[in-house]
Amino acid sequence: MMLSVIRLKQICAGVFFLGFGLFVSASVAQDVAKTNTATESKIRNIDGVAAVVNTGYVTRKEIDDRIASLKKQGIKLPEDGSVRKLVLDRLILEKIQLQNAEQEGIRVSNKELDKIITDLAAKNKLTYAEFKAKMNASGITFERYKELLREDVLVSRYREREVEAKLKISDAEIDNFIAEWTRASSPVGTPRSAPAGKGDIEEIDVAQIFISVDASAGAGAQAEAKKKADALLRDARGDVDFLQLGAMAAKDNPKIKFQELGYRTPDRLPQLFYEAVRNTGSGQVANAVVKSPAGYHVLKVLDRRAMGASPPPQQAVAADVASNTPQSIPITQTFSRHILLRNRPGLSDQDAERRLQGYRDQVRTKTADFADLAKKYSEDGSAANGGDLGWMSPGDLVPEFEQAMNRLQIGDVSNPVKTEFGWHLIQVLDRREGQLTVEKQRQFARAAIRERKFEQAYQEWLRELRDNATVKILNADDAASSAPR
């Protein structure tokens, strides 16, 4: 999966999300352990408790508050009635992480918290007092905001210690990633090996394009992922390079990954994969999308050969190039500028979009200069330079921004574009052909591998936390103002 947020996060250093209610990724697991009858009776008498989590609990009001916060942020929520259960699952996981962090002795002192808030205020060009007033005006008390921020920092530090710090990336993994990336960018097809003879053990080189979707996702999300996988399967049947198709899909959607599994005997392939490609010839795509608990997989057999046979010549050359004499990869770089209206309390999506449409119309009718508007209205560090972002390479920017930018001709101004940072108006000033240096390749590869590994390790860690916790669901369906059933 292509890493795409680092560069824009550096540029938008002043764009810290002033909202709260951290929404961690989670998976749904069955309730484990049972409390005894006496304890359960006592808990049920506590008005508003939705679930008991180890020695703590989650209230129905917490669910209500989280849903209200998400709606205020403009996040689209499931319409199939599952939202309360999904929010409860996430709150349970947050509660478990907080409990474990505190048990492990992880602390955030008041001095540290004040320093973090001071830095956040400064990045948003506010004093501490102004930041406090803005929080109070947003509908939450400043003390509650500090409490939520402290919890976010605790969970972040705990996660970093338990997951991120344990990820290891070898030079060999980086070499393999670059070789895969180079091959995916090459228009030349892969030569095929001679098929295995009768009685020979066969090895199959399978590649996949994977659309991840959480097992707890609603029917809408599942259907959307399946629709995307079916579209990719149709595209893969055409005259296209499969890994190049995967690279482009991953660039457009961070939930999509592509991967060549390498030569494996049938027993070393996932059973679902082998059943799907058992009768698929070299260079052919599997007949149907494969559904697994993790999501949807589009599979292609790149090659089949007898075990131990030499790889096709081009693969051997590609591996040699990647490991011994890596070459700079030609890329198209774009010079652009933007006007950013950041996510913040009091500014709705509709208001931000309407304001940017007004700026766009002024630029298009030549009644205002883009740079002057950026200096006056843009809410990030590039404002002083007229919104200039400099020369950007593929993958430097978040997908939504990069996709909109790539569709523009030189001199064009985009429609308003929403990203995790807020709403943007983009203008492309120039394009040029550049080179991705060997050092940049390795940095990019390391970051992409870390992101790929982190997602898997993080989800496994969350499942382990949930399985090892004692959780009792009492009432998640009613709002806090409703009487318990």
Question: What's the topology here?
Answer:
Elements: H1 6-11, H2 37-44, E1 49-53, E2 56-59, H3 60-72, H4 83-103, H5 110-123, H6 128-137, H7 142-162, H8 171-185, E3 202-212, H9 219-236, H10 242-252, E4 256-264, H11 271-277, E5 284-285, E6 290-292, E7 295-306, H12 313-323, E8 329-342, H13 349-364, H14 370-377, E9 388-392, H15 399-406, E10 417-419, E11 422-436, H16 438-468, E12 471-473
Helix pairs in contact: 3-4, 4-7, 8-10, 8-12, 8-16
Order of helices and strands: HHEEHHHHHHEHHEHEEEHEHHEHEEHE
Give the count of helical stretches: 16
The fourth-level CATH homologous superfamily of the largest domain is: Porin chaperone SurA, peptide-binding domain
Low-confidence stretches: 1-45, 187-191, 313-326
Structural class by SSE content? alpha+beta
Radius of gyration: 26 Å
> What is the CATH domain class of the largest domain?
Mainly Alpha
Which CATH architecture of the largest domain is right? Orthogonal Bundle
Strand content: 15-25%
Provide a compact summary of the structure.
By secondary structure, the chain is α+β, with helices and mostly antiparallel strands. The protein is 45% helix and 18% strand. Mean pLDDT is 77; it is low at 1-45, 187-191 and 313-326.
